[in-house]
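Protein of interest.
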Amino acid sequence: MRARGANAQVAIAFPSFYGGVPGSGFTKIPFSQIALGETQGLVESDVLGYGRNPLEPDLDVIVNDGSITVPVDQRLFGLHLKLLLGAPQTTQGVAATGKLTFALQPTVNSTITIGGQAFTFKASAPGANDILIGATVAETVRNTVWALNRSAVAGVAVASYSTDLDAAAVTVTYDAVGTGGNAMTIAAGSSPASNVTVSGATLAGGSAAGPYNHVFKAGALILPDAAIEIGMPDVPTFAMNYGAMYNTLAVPMQRSGNLNATFNIIAQGEKPRTTTSAAGTLAELVLTRFSQFTGFIEREGVPLGNIVSGAMNVSNGLDKAEVIRADGRIDGVDPGMVAVTPEIVSRFADMSLLDLATGRTPVDIAFGWRAGPDARLTFRVPQLRLPKPQLPVTGPGGVQGTFPGQAHRNAAGDVLIVTLVNDVASYA
């Protein structure tokens, strides 16, 4: 029987040492495309003196580079993130939250108090711990989110602040999951009237029970490798690739279609093909895919408008150790410089992104997808520089600009923080 892609199988396991193949612990991996396996080219003979017809070519080195395209899902994607960035820090629980709802514009010099720190609404020239009243309630809400997220006051900086597309309320989310955030206070002044209603005197809902929060960060000095078996049971034939490391990630964001991620892979080698699987009994996680239509792009907690599409691109800059070996394979792979280069394509409707680009102002950007309160995937780039783009007019339709950004480390040394919230207890 001929091999068919519909019946192909992929399994991944993490060995205890580079290039190892575990005897168990493999997980079945859903995929849409995979190209991986050893290739060995030929070197043309350079010997002269035997006429015009060439002598036999020599064998060249062995190469095992490839890629895999997988669905971006709530559970299995954590394995791919581990292979790309290293093991996450995992905490179970729910963060405490609260809300400040704006009924009307705040009165000048009215206040809200967050974590014991008062913030005063001003009509112009806001200073430290002031918030500029905008032309509309929505603009004031956005200004409030930005002011709170940028605050260096200890009692304020322990939480994150956001709003939604309606921009009628500010959501306060304690950064640490668990019950600790339930004690954080929030209040709104009444004289003069702030016209803000708080959800309660303190945040609420923080719990040590609930989903698991897996936080992955780029920049680990040592990255894991994997054994990846590709099986074609129709033949049957099974190929075990070892020393496989993820070099790059590309996740396109758009309004519709399947949400997939493509990883570039550098592997050390491939075992001889067998007629039976060496992966043993496979563990299976339930595949629950994130949907493109639930995607969001936020700047410091505020949704970006007029975004047509985007992409999250990450590179580990892997450097092959191409030493002389009798088997013709690489000796290993060393992590190089991290590159995080998100791309944003925007309809040109205002100067917000263009001003950030021309002003050389780093921005805090988050790409992500939600599937309810207990399932979320977020790529946060805390310091992203945007280039000044062209705004080509190519026809009678809308004018668009493409912003291919470059991330750099923030004061804490972070360039990319990926948070996956789900019901998987561990990716260790």
